[in-house]
Amino acid sequence: MNVQWHAHLPGVVLDGDGGMRIGPGRLVHLPFTDWSKLDSTFSFNDRQYEESRPVFYSGAADLVDPSDLGESHVLNCVSRLHTAFLLHPDAPLLPSPHMSVIYLQVEVSSLPGAVSWRRIIGPFEREWIVFGSRVTYHFDDSQLAVVRSGYEALEGFDATRAFSGVESSLRTLEVTTRPEFWWDGRSLNKINEFVHCIAALEHILLPAREDTPAEMKRTPTFGEHAAVFTSPSRDDLQERARFFSTLYRLRSRLLHGELGITELEEEDLKLLSWGRRLLCDVILRVVILGRTRSGDEMLSPLLARAYKNAEAHHTLNQRFEQAQTR
Question: Does residue 17 carry a pLDDT above 90?
């Protein structure tokens, strides 16, 4: 059975004509005439539609199992693409296509060979398609190539073999793109999103609190593990560790009420975007490294050894490089 789809990507702007293939679909600008055949709700808003230039992930696939209407296959592909966008180094706050509209072609069971288009409508309805988003992110072909690499890395992701904290962190990455996490009615406010991202990083980089050695201090250890995991170089290892510890310390002050959200200094505000950027980097690395995980191996002890020992750090980097080729 053949299934086709068009999933709107809210907030994505293509610097070019589109057409790049990622997975089983392409990123395209649907002409208004084509979109209005799928959805005639805004049939007189062609001018606004052309100004917003909505981007769709459009594709088709042949499914072997005729009992599968294709919805799960399509939604998995769309979710994977969205996650790949989120893992881009620029860490964009792009809401999920599930918040907008996904158009899915399905077979009409009572009429062999006949098809119809089904609309999966999220809370944005068609508003972001027609009128666009106040927060947008531009992608050229080189940036989309990075997104494609992320998609390919996620295709082989096996949650049953993943290191602890990865699956929940992927959910955090998606949930925090919802406007209620960063839009205060007037502008971007990243405090809530920052706290959640650092908490997700804590689950990946540090042992559970009940498993934490008595002598281990979580704030400096968070920085050490983040520093040694995100760079093969040891030249500025301690400096990067201190910086990442600063992020964890800011999160703790906000979470425990030591610092009010209206009391942040300019330097604190600049740090907020780093929570998401670091989470994106760590998730992608740990997803790739997870291909080589054996048994119930834990990440935290690997990072602790790598920070203290240059040879262990080199071995970890080699393992990561080998995992990238799998």
Answer: no
